[in-house]
Input
Amino acid sequence: MSGFALAQYAIFLGIITALVRPVGRYLAKVFTGQPTLLDPILRPAEKLLYAMIRANPEREMHWKEYASCFVVFAGVGTMFLYAILRFQRWLPWFYPQWMTTQVTPDLAMNTAISFATTTTWQAYGGETTLSYASQMAGLVVENFLGGAAGLAVAVAFVRGLARDRTTTLGNFWVDLVRGLLWILLPLSLGLSVLLIGQGVPMNFQPYASAQTLEGPRQTIAQGPVAALESIKNLGTNGGGFFGANGAHPYENPTPLSNLLEMLAIAVLPAAFTYTYGMMVGRTRQGWLLYGVMIVLFVAGLLACGWAEQRGNPRLTTLVDRRPSAQQAGGNMEGKEVRFGISSSVLTAVTTSNDATGSYNSQPDSYTPLGGMVLLVNLLLGEITFGGLGTGLYSMVMIALIAVFLGGLLVGRTPEYLGKKVRAPETKMLMLYALAAPIGILLLSALAVVSQAGLAGLTVNGGPHGLTEILFAHASANANNGQSFGGLNANSAYYNLTLAITMMIGRFGLAIPALALAGSLGEQQPAPPSVGTIPTDSLAFALLLIGTALILTALNYFPALTLGPLLEQLGIAR
Amino acid sequence: MKKNLVTAILMTIVSTILLGILYPLAVTAIAQIFFRNQANGQLVVANGKIVGSRIIGQAFSSPGYFHSRPSNAGNGYDATNSNGSQLGPTNQKLIDRVKGDTAAAQAENPGTPVPIDLVTASASGLDPDITPAAAAFQAPRVAKARGISQEQLRQLVANHTQSRQWGFLGEPRVNVLELNLDLDRQFPLTKPAKTE
Output
């Protein structure tokens, strides 16, 4: 791996690490109602908003009410977005000559559920399907709301761990509004402006018509891209304005825009580990989780980078894929020259870990091992930084499972932060641990044995085709949204089954998490005893990493052997 | 429960106005005032008409121009249909396509290995750049077609080679449209170019 690649990775992780404490503290202040710099402008806006939506900010909610608010809000958002997409013909900026893909009811429903759950899986390409009004009033809005909702659930979850003998976890509307006004909106405004400076367009003009140098005409799709681009990353959504997402020069024009977008994805989830530590009064816990995330992240980065730089051995030997000062070399199929291998891999690993479905290179064209790293990141459960909010509570759920396993090993009742993990809590952990395999394995198996499922394999077959199907279900379940683009998922079958998988992933995680938090919040914490496993030690970090890997391996190793591993074995000639 | 449903609906409506209308308008205002060219897609105008965008690739096939990478956006460089090839690494179509393209490229430069970006499709199908290696590979053909020395051409290519951003981000790259525009300006073809 070149020195430049390592420098880029190191600087990326260095910036994130440096931002964890300051950003984490800010987030903690916002959600515990402490004073911040933006208060003079935002407090009045906040009060006005509560009045307009008829919410009482003083009232705290039981976990059941919090969870039902979360579900109902997602449902309402879905219906709204569905309506906008189906009626986009009657909204402004609809140019029929370029809208060549029909927004059928099943595509609209799949897209609506997809964006409301922050999956932003797109069975369509933006520039041929959606008008500017749909992208702004529809997609941008759900990008904000879905991201903020996930963050709110995470805050409620942390309160359950932090509080004792309580029956309430906060107010969903307050957490939602604060997340939007204090965090997502200002950051999106700032990032949008920076991206425009790098060349991301922001206009409402019709597609430009150019006469290329050699004669043929080229119609160039335009749009209010920057406004979507910023929140797409900050909310860990990932759905692109154009079909090629972050590979499109208008969404991601320069290596710097790429770095900014990746930082935007990772910074809030990473910093939330510190917020968690602050809110439970033990910052060491937060740093431990962050450390585990870094280890898993770097392992994936190095493995994927190595595989992609090595390139594809099946290509003719007359091709020059050696890295040099003149070219990046490696596997350049489905990659952009400005990003080469290093920036492409950094983005692929960041987005597959952070439940963000964006990309600046095509995962379907990755080497078998390179693509497998991305798939494994999805299957781990989006715990490495992870999605906005969802990453933290996923990681803590795995930590609780680790504590449970540890308790079995030493014969003690498992404890975490002084709270006991008893039968009710373990039931919730089981529900969470079972949701993903059901969503991913059962539905992938169904796709593979049905005509409708196999009909999606229009480009690649064999083990690579199986990987495409696995990846789609893993991505939907992880609420990631990334895809192996060779799978044609715009069919009634996939629009339905993937929408179901997305909902299993979103609500099969959030509801057990809130139930768990509610149950832990009611407990009276016990002081640590001789048999307590310390959860802020290196040994626990190793136990945590081991638990995550074992859960993933036990569930998915057989599937991986039939897909990417089989393809890798067959690739060397 | 009904109260929360009402709040959910009201919140969605208010958010649609605030985040779906006001926020994009605010960003557009800032963009159009401070970053006009970038906000409008960096369209390049030559001889009074739009010839393309600086950051969106276009197809070139005549010997007197530098060629762009293979593209799977529509029928090639269709900027209303961005896409990559989606071909997996063991897909026979990919292996055959690369073999064919490499053989054709080698015809103009026998014995030299072909830089990989010249025979691989980009992720968006609209990649505006090629690597310096790909530019150097094509230089002999372009120099011959234009009747200029390789040294003159090398200088021109160097002028259009962008190094890594901030010294370490991304890769060095050559913008094909800007290079070809400059070629036409400085070393115009004296007779019409034969398109292969």
In short: The first helix of chain B runs from residue 2 to 34.
